[in-house]
Amino acid sequence: MERVFTPLDCLLPAGNLKFCLLILNQPFDRGHFHCLWSKAALRACADGGANHLYHITEGSQDSFLPDYISGDFDSIQPEVKAYYKAKGCELIETMDQDFTDFTKCLQILQKKIEEKGLQIDLIVTLGGLGGRFDQTMASVETLFHATNITPFPVIVIQESSLIYLLQPGKHKLQVNTGLEGSWCGLIPIGSSCDSVTTTGLRWNLANQVLKFGTLVSTSNTYDNSGTVTIKTDKPLLWTMAIKL
Amino acid sequence: MLLVLLWRRPLVGRSAICARISRWAARSYGACLYAAGLPPARRFLPDYISGDFDSIQPEVKAYYKAKGCELIETMDQDFTDFTKCLQILQKKIEEKGLQIDLIVTLGGLGGRFDQTMASVETLFHATNITPFPVIVIQESSLIYLLQPGKHKLQVNTGLEGSWCGLIPIGSSCDSVTTTGLRWNLANQVLKFGTLVSTSNTYDNSGTVTIKTDKPLLWTMAIKL
């Protein structure tokens, strides 16, 4: 069974896919934010993500109220927390130190999607790829855990980068929204992939090994077909550029 | 210890003489310094600039060429500019008979996600290119690939920030044991989807020891 997906559909004002939005504790692009916020079925902040939401919506914070803010609240600023609490946003404290705020926020999101019976196609995460290297890696780790948390694809976007973890099997990515930047890549994070085959890339793979120390596909780009297909035997991280 | 070149963006106080600068750095920092118009006494000229030259600005290239810097074109598309620059660096270290302890890379961890991953990939290749440890630094992050075996990291320079981590980026590690961390590992598996050590920190010993059966990426904060 081939999984068909348009990663950047969520950034198209007239895009078809329905999604929930999760905001992490990192600066994010204003352009992405407004498009994603306006279309999201549910909006959540993970701890300090609320700080960024508060500041980027300065002057009209009450028009951009998250459905909930979750985390251990060691990053959210006191005045930000007080503001959203006074506005009736749900604050959910999650003290479990074995999981990151991102992972815990995703668990809560899935629960709410089920409770509300929401029909959605994916979960979009804003932030998580910049700043501290360990937190970028923690975002990738959450994508691995996500397969046990939610059946929906989870993508992470920050600045001009997107990442999406492909599960073993066949995938077809539509890359013809007009928002695709020039580069893309396939990163065997976590373990080597013994067999990867692609079409639609400038440098395709034909039943090849992808492995750190052997071959990692970076600075790749597209042919003109508008579609990329990937067949992989192990989880494989797809990454691509977004035009800003 | 080779003096390099923790050459920050011009506004930061700490500076050193740049002896080695990758084309990547030349693109960012050479252009910044060139544009800043620093007086001749403080110009920083790299020993060489290498790459496929698809990123270096023409005026920057012309400037350094006129100043006598070596420009080495490397057209091989199977390797990144970083990897190729490292190959040239090792050759020059050998030719000049330099006694050094490590290679420091400035930049490579920010911006494009694929290029951050390409930097990690170069660290994997580095073990076949040079015997010296290679570290990568950008902003407040450092990464360093630990080879299988035992390592002792001194983390008492006063420049260590609060966080650190161990990332099984290329493959899972079946057995990792540490001391010196707030959350130590005892013969544990590190694997994406199971356990990755992030947002870790130090105890007060000033030393971290790590024993690993597979390559494992160490990452730590630098106080800015």
Commentary on this structure:
2 copies of one chain form a homodimer. Chain A has about 240 residues and is of the alpha/beta class. Helices cover about 25% and strands about 30% of the residues of chain A. Chain A has 5 helices and 15 strands. In chain A, the strands form 2 sheets. In chain A, strands 5-4-3-2-6-7-8-15-10-13 form a 10-stranded mixed beta sheet, with helices on both faces. Chain A has a 5-stranded mixed beta sheet with strand order 1-9-14-11-12, with no helix packed on it. The radius of gyration of chain A is 18 Å and the shape is globular. The two termini of chain A are about 35 Å apart. The model of chain A has no long low-confidence stretch (mean pLDDT about 95). The interface between A and B is large, with 39 and 39 residues. Chain A: Keywords: ATP-binding, Kinase, Nucleotide-binding, Transferase. Chain A: This is Thiamine pyrophosphokinase. Chain A: Pathway: Cofactor biosynthesis; thiamine diphosphate biosynthesis; thiamine diphosphate from thiamine: step 1/1.
